[in-house]
Amino acid sequence: MIKKALEKVMSEDMSEIWTVLNNEEKRRIIDAFVIHNFKKNQMIYAEGEEPEYLWCLLQGKVKKFKDGVGGRVQILRLIRSVQYFGYRAYFANERYNSSAAAFEPSTVGTLPMTLVKDMINNNRKLAWFFIHELSRNLGGSDTKIVNLTQKHIRGRLAEALIVLSDHYGFEDDNMTLKIYMAREDLANLSNMTTSNAIRTLSGFVAEKLITVDGRRIRILDEPQLRKISKYG
Amino acid sequence: MIKKALEKVMSEDMSEIWTVLNNEEKRRIIDAFVIHNFKKNQMIYAEGEEPEYLWCLLQGKVKKFKDGVGGRVQILRLIRSVQYFGYRAYFANERYNSSAAAFEPSTVGTLPMTLVKDMINNNRKLAWFFIHELSRNLGGSDTKIVNLTQKHIRGRLAEALIVLSDHYGFEDDNMTLKIYMAREDLANLSNMTTSNAIRTLSGFVAEKLITVDGRRIRILDEPQLRKISKYG
DNA sequence: TACCTTTTATGTTTTAAAACACAAAGTTAC
DNA sequence: GTAACTTTGTGTTTTAAAACATAAAAGGTA
Question: What is the chain B residue with the closest CA to A137?
Answer without folding.
Answer: B138
